[in-house]
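anyone seen this seq b4? input:
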Amino acid sequence: MSKRLIVIGGGAAGFFCAVNAARMNPLLKVTIIEKSNKLLAKVKVSGGGRCNVTHACFDIVEMSKRYPRGQHFVKKAFYLFFSTDTINWFEERGVKLKAEDDGRMFPTTDSSQTIIDCLFKEANKYGVNILMNREVKTINAQRSIFNIQCSSGENFEADFICIASGGYPKISMFDWLKELGHTIEEPVPSLFTFNLPNHPITKLMGVSVENAKVKIQNSKLEEDGPLLITHWGLSGPAVLRLSAWGARELGVMSYEFRVIVNWLVEFNEQSLKERFQELRNTNASQKIINKNSFGLPARLWEFLAEQSGIKNEWRWADLPSTEQNKFIKNLCSYECGVKGKTTFKEEFVTAGGIKLNEVDANTMMSKRVPNLFFAGEVLDVDGITGGFNFQHAWTSGFIASKAIASL
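predicted toks r here
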């Protein structure tokens, strides 16, 4: 007699669980229930519509260090399904991936539709049933059968359930899972950008620096990497990573804090002062505003010079010590106040979810409810930007599928 698996959530983790379970056990009747009218929504928009499938990191210990929450959990899971397995899985189905200089991996087509088409093809091939616009309200475990009630009034029965519903912004939205006996780590946003309301630097929107260091004042939080100035504040990988590592700490601060930016990571204030002395000698007759020897974008150089009180007509030989010291400080430790955050739509992730000590990392099965599984962001696991959250989705989805298919 065939058994029934219902996967709640039509995102990356849910789809991966469904298609692999159906493939590994042809007797399993698999259904995906999605509350919205969209499937694989994050897959579609990730990486600017290219889908950052995974990261070209092939060392499990190193990879697990990219997860601010869930490091030990994902490390165990990666021994069962890792980035190498993701690459092979897609390549076996005709989807080749390529690595970019920063390690992010995309389909060679540079289109997320390639990944979506591949997953739909698998779903069709193995007879996965998909139901949309159905929000699950309650799950009741009756003996060995689950009864699922939807807001549409429909009821479904299943022998196995995999919950891959994604993250929720409010803890109250987890109530239907708490009723199953699970504990929820309170959700907070991760991967967000820093708002600088009415700050003059926002006039430089679109300017980016290839490598800058961003530090949260009065904390141990700091990251370096590409930094982008936007019309609302600071963004780019350095800021997104910082927001991930500081998700809970910054939440406690109500997203009001000060950041210190070093635009020239190879210098500190002392070494830059020595370099300025050299420039005063070698470029004595040249205008400071015109001679940027550090590779910074011209608009940023001019802005920081202006903020330091340097006049357009001043030459290197004329630079007074007071303005020089201000300029050095602004280049190495530019300070600004952050007030609020903006969701980074493509990569939005929540920290928080199902407490990890209640889930078996070897099977993704609940330790509290037999035959109930979890996959993806609903778990209290989140990675920094760069394909790490998708890798967790593929890994947890696959492990759950394998465990279910063998039962």
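The mean pLDDT is 96. The CA atoms of residues 96 and 365 lie 31 Å apart. kinda curious what u guys think
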